[in-house]
């Protein structure tokens, strides 16, 4: 099978230069391809993984020359797979591990503290805050973090699930845009997203005070 890393290094298409941060996703995809995984299954599997999620899966789908709509659907579906599992079983798993290992307790305490620091907008605006938190495709703002934050904050299951779903759907559209427009334009779009998100939170806080 063709080597994805060699293809990405060779350049050529605009999308192959637009997501340099997907090296890990490319390595995993190259390994799975050598194991004869179908390209569609690789994209789906990458989207389920923490850290990679949509940001890693969609660029790989473009490098594989899959249909963009198919890549979008596979990535959104894969990214949503961990959400109900985290919502349903995170507390039970935390209780189980902390009761058996002091090291696990320290690690989980650190994860909870980090999640609480990230969850400020979610705590402030609940459903809308969670949806927008997941929708903006910046590092540390994906479905995994959103699902964990909603558990830490005690949000209801279905409210958390649908907020994550709509956030993932919007994030998929944004990442598709970023991958397809090329690196320089992606930088401009990223800066615009950062500015828009800053304005959005300021506006929501103003409405909350009003």
UniProtKB/TrEMBL annotation:
The lineage of its organism: Eukaryota, Viridiplantae, Streptophyta, Embryophyta, Tracheophyta. It comes from the Eukaryota. This is Small multi-drug export protein. Keywords: Membrane, Transmembrane, Transmembrane helix. The keyword Transmembrane helix applies. The chain crosses the membrane at residues 41-63, 69-90, 127-155, 161-179, 186-204. Signal peptide: none annotated. The keyword Transmembrane helix applies.
């Amino acid at each position: 099978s063709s080597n994805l890393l060699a293809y990405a290094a060779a350049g050529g298409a605009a999308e192959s230069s637009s997501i340099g941060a997907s090296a890990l996703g490319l390595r995993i995809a190259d390994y799975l391809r050598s194991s004869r995984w179908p390209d569609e299954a690789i994209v789906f599997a990458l989207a389920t993984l923490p850290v990679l999620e949509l940001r890693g899966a969609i660029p790989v789908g473009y490098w594989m020359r899959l249909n963009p709509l198919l890549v979008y659907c596979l990535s959104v579906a894969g990214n949503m797979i961990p959400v109900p599992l985290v919502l349903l079983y995170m507390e039970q798993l935390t209780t189980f591990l902390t009761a058996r290992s002091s090291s696990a307790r320290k690690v989980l305490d650190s994860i909870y503290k980090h999640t609480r620091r990230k969850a400020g907008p979610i705590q402030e605006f609940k459903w809308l805050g969670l949806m927008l938190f997941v929708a903006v495709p910046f590092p540390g703002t994906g479905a995994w973090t959103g699902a964990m934050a909603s558990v830490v904050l005690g949000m209801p299951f279905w409210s958390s699930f649908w907020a994550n779903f709509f956030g993932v759907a919007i994030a998929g559209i944004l990442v598709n845009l970023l991958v397809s427009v090329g690196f320089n334009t992606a930088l401009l779009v990223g800066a615009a997203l950062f500015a828009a998100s800053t304005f959005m939170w300021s506006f929501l806080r103003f409405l909350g005070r009003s």
